[in-house]
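protien #1 (seq + structre)
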Amino acid sequence: MAISLARGFLERQVPIAPDTLTRVLFAVRKRKTVANWIQKWLPQLDRRVWILASGRGLSQVGIGFVLFYAPIFFVNQVGLSATQVGLGVGCEALAGMFGRFLGGSMTDSPQWGRRKTLLLSALISALADAVFLVSYTFPIFVLGNLLMGFGVGLYWPSTEAVVADITPSADRNEAFALVRLADSLGLGLGVMLGGALITTTQQYRPLFAIDGLTFLLFFALIYYAIAETRPTQSHDRNFWQGWTVALKDPLLLTYVTVNILFTGYISQVQSTLPLYLNRFVPSGSTLGLSEATLSLLFTSHVILTALCQLPVVKALKPLSQPRALMVSACLWGTGFSLVWATGVGIFGQASLGAVLALSTLAIAITAYTPVASSFVVMLAPETLRGVYLSVNSMCWAIGYFVGPPLGGWALDQSRFISDGFWLVAAMSIILVLGILSYLDWQLRVKHH
């Protein structure tokens, strides 16, 4: 626009003050500089990756609306007990395991493929929100959780397989980083908007309607904008045959151990660490950081994780996936050591130690999540990406099943064990580094 304005002035031979022309040219140069910077910062990926990322971000906005507020609603307003809500969430996890198992085979099946599995996932998740919307009793609440867990279980293998299918191997780390960034931004926006809606209206049930609507919008986006991406096969496998191949893959089974540890680390940050900082770290004459301080710390942690996602992956791009994961493991060890140092009072200000620890752990997460998915895709035969990514997704379920109870147990023990838990977590990276070194060596031998 600025260029057109300047050209128009020149064609009409309208006298322009020197300072006006200087400002116009400066604006043009500045706009070009910003555009070049954005183009350089953002990865150059297939248009469909951006479409899928926008859809994932949209669905995560809906999930953010209900993620933290659903338990409060069903206990405080519906009248279910905390135990009943916990059982319902447990049912969701079990249904999610089954959904992941079935979803991996469906994703690789010629009868279903990536697209149909994604569409079914969106419909089942929207149906789950409809059940929650009319839920007043425990059995209906459990039904909603079973449907939601199954829908989400179908979602992960299929959506990750689409990213892998449409992205060259050299760009997969960045592609997975982009969709993870969309997930984080959508979830954070949903949590904020959900809180604002509750504060304004004091109504919880509309949250489920909004969540269901986002799943239907995601369905429409996939239906109209994403064609089937499943590679063609020379012969069709038995529906369950892919699992036989995956569970006999020594590299995949070796990596599963590492992946469960990584997901267990993330679960500690989300479940155990907030409680530890609230109850154990020295803060002046008392123990524990306030809820307001913790809210600020963890909000900043989420924001930093989102901001670092693409730059960190771009920096790790020259490394092989196992070596990039070694960098993540070292950051996890450093972060957990900083948590221990904060708890035993090495830092004069506990909040300073918490900031350093959470910042380090944020970068550790960004170095892990996209690289892990890319690594599993690299291990997988092209026709079995769905099953292999289903195994990757199940590692998350196992890590979150084991991690929080283990961390909770440690915090219920003596102060020595509660503090030492973080040192043990930090030292566990020795096992992770050893396994990743073995995997890196095996891959180099295989390629040569």
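ok now protien #2
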Amino acid sequence: MDFKIDQNSPVPLHAQIEGYLRSLIVQEKYRSGKCFLPKEVTLAKKLGVSRNTVRQAVNTLVQEQLIERKKGVGTKVLNKKIATRLDNWISFTKEMGKLGIEVVNYVVKASLEIAPDEVYDALSVSSSKKIWKLEKVRGSNKAKYLYSVSYFHPRVGITGEEDFITPLYELLETEHDTIVATSKERLSAVKADQNLVSILDLAPEVPILRRERLVCDPGDRPVEFNIVFYNTDYFTYDIEIKRDL
């Protein structure tokens, strides 16, 4: 431990320790949650301060939800998961922006393909037609959060020349005069197959969240059939149900 308390500093002792702890929690071994932070009693002894002073610094980070303390276990960096809601229909980029996370597009690929039968059924399109498929792997500079696959009804007029970095529904409206109005969704938990393990850098057969949705225009005509696989190390889904009174 290189850090030492400066007894002559105008900065309070607990604030100095707080600063030290902040420098620790950004280190990979702590940030990943693989290692516990030093115990309060250990820090107090090595720094020559009371345990209460150390605890005051720790409490500040706990209150900021940067670390979590479990009695009899230890203190670790809190792995914050991104909570998204079923009733919250905004673009992924905007949703991450609200959380202060800069989106990284690991893969953005459009191709004209024969799709699985469930896609043709959902879009009410003849299975003899190739349709446009858009794949995206997105996340932050630290991890891949999701793998999204979209299939579009031929009526939309996708050409493959679009800038798919643009928020999708803005693009559909401005370039293809297609307004989306409803999203019919289904959630399920699945085991990651080898393809998803490779795409999202997951452990084999780890449980992940599968979100399937059919997006329709104001006339209830299918526009997009979308399947998203979420890395549950980083994502949760919040559902709020209100009782009719």
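Residues 13-77 form a domain with the Arc Repressor Mutant, subunit A fold (CATH 1.10.10.10).
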